[in-house]
Write a structure and sequence with these properties.
Low-confidence stretches: 5-20
Keywords: Signal
Strand content: 5-15%
Mean pLDDT: 87
CATH superfamily of one domain: Outer membrane efflux proteins (OEP)
Order of helices and strands: HHEHHEEHHEHEEHHH
Pfam families: OEP
Helix content: 55-70%
Organism: Sphingorhabdus lacus
Strand order of the largest sheet: 2-3-5-6
GO molecular function, one term: efflux transmembrane transporter activity
Protein name: TolC family protein
């Protein structure tokens, strides 16, 4: 299994053409739109928000009244034999919630609804960041695969020329061996970049819930988003605040649940003997001698304190993440601009001249390989710099999500 997979990767890399690398193109905006529309992560968060909304509606409903019928004094002995002395009572009872239970319950449900809605927004923001990162990584892996393919083609040409020169006696056999070793390294690198490219394609396809794993990321040059005012809480901070509000509401509900409810009832009683009727009424209330809900009250208060601390931490963390992301984005932009300047064009010109000199016998194979390696390193650094910029931009956009 492993041997066949390794062989397949190597064989695929050797025939990897530009058409294979540049598969079905998808822009960042298209990937974001498809992910928002199709991702199960978003569907799950939306369903949870809808469920919380339904619970908030249900929380304001009062208890239902209860209808009861009670039959007494039948099937006994003496005067109570049969149904002659039966008393039948039809009554309606209603539990009356005291202590503000209903309003406290509604407050908890609304706070949980707000938390669920913010969780839905958080899921969208997290998916947006993940898609941006996956799209940028796919673009970088495509560029690395193209570079590896070009390097393999160049190594094949060098190996061919080295063999010609060795056969003509212009180069020692060691030069041909070195060229063949460089070719083997280039093919191995091409196989590695192919594996990473296929993995990146599948990751993006999974995030956007696409049936087509053959995706190609088109280049997207986005500018940095504007600074978010300090007074505006980040999405993570809003989520922590909503959790704190829910915890405070649960404290109030726990205290309200400590107040016993009253159940009032009223009805009519019919006496079988004489067929008289009479009204009945009653009131019942629990005696809070043992259970005063102290454990739940203390637990809710502790959770409220924890939520307050979590809010403070979220505020501090949001400020740090925003500042770090903007600093990293600035550094990545400076590095990318420096690498994208004359460095690449000069390295390409140096390689062109060195190849001409090598073909003319003025430069050795080692010198040509050194120049080729320098150009490859410069291009890889440029690819990494662009990826670093995209990652920093994705982090900043997520940090600024409101």
């Amino acid at each position: 299994m492993h041997i066949s997979l390794r062989a397949a990767l190597l064989a695929g890399a050797l025939v990897f053409s530009g058409a294979a690398i540049r598969a079905e193109p998808i822009s960042l905006s298209q990937a974001l739109a498809k992910g928002t529309e199709s991702s199960p992560r978003v569907t799950q968060a939306k369903a949870q928000a809808d469920a919380a909304e339904a619970r908030a509606r249900q929380a304001g409903v009062s208890p239902n009244p209860e209808l009861s019928i009670e039959v007494e004094n039948f099937a006994g002995s003496g005067a109570f034999q049969g149904l002659r002395s039966t008393e039948t009572t039809l009554a309606v009872s209603q539990r009356l919630e005291l202590g503000g239970k209903r309003s406290a319950r509604v407050e908890v449900a609304r706070a949980e609804r707000d938390f669920a809605f913010l969780s839905y927004k958080t899921a969208l923001a997290d998916l947006d960041r993940d898609i941006r990162l996956a799209h940028a990584e796919l673009r970088a892996d495509e560029d690395r695969a193209v570079l590896a393919r070009d390097n393999t083609a160049a190594a094949e040409e060098l190996a061919r020329i080295a063999k010609v020169l060795v056969d003509a006696g212009r180069e020692p056999p060691l030069r041909q061996l070195r060229a063949e070793a460089a070719l083997a390294e280039a093919r191995a690198e091409q196989a590695r970049t192919l594996g990473e490219l296929l993995s990146s394609r599948r990751l993006l396809a999974t995030l956007i819930w696409s049936d087509d794993p053959e995706l190609s990321a088109t280049f997207t040059d986005e500018s940095a988003p504007p600074n978010v005012p300090v007074e505006l809480p980040s999405l993570n901070e809003q989520l922590a605040i909503a959790q704190k509000n829910a915890a405070l509401a649960r404290v109030r509900l726990a205290r309200a649940n400590a107040v016993p409810d009253v159940t009032a009832s009223g009805g009519v009683r019919r006496f079988a003997e004489g067929r008289e009727t009479a009204l009945v009424a009653g009131v019942s209330i629990a005696m809070p001698f043992r259970d005063r809900n102290r454990g739940n009250i203390d637990a809710a208060q502790s959770e409220s304190l924890a939520a307050e601390s979590a809010t403070m931490l979220a505020r501090i963390e949001a400020t740090r993440v925003r500042q770090d992301a903007r600093i990293l984005l600035g550094a990545a932009e400076v590095r990318y601009e420096a690498l994208a300047g004359l460095g690449i064009s000069q390295a390409e010109e140096a390689l062109r001249l060195t190849r001409i000199g090598y073909n003319a016998g003025k430069f050795s194979l080692l010198e040509l390989l050194d120049v080729q390696t320098a150009l490859t390193t410069a291009k890889l650094n440029l690819i990494q710099a662009r990826l670093d910029r995209a990652e920093a931009l994705a982090a900043l956009i997520r940090a600024n999500a409101l």
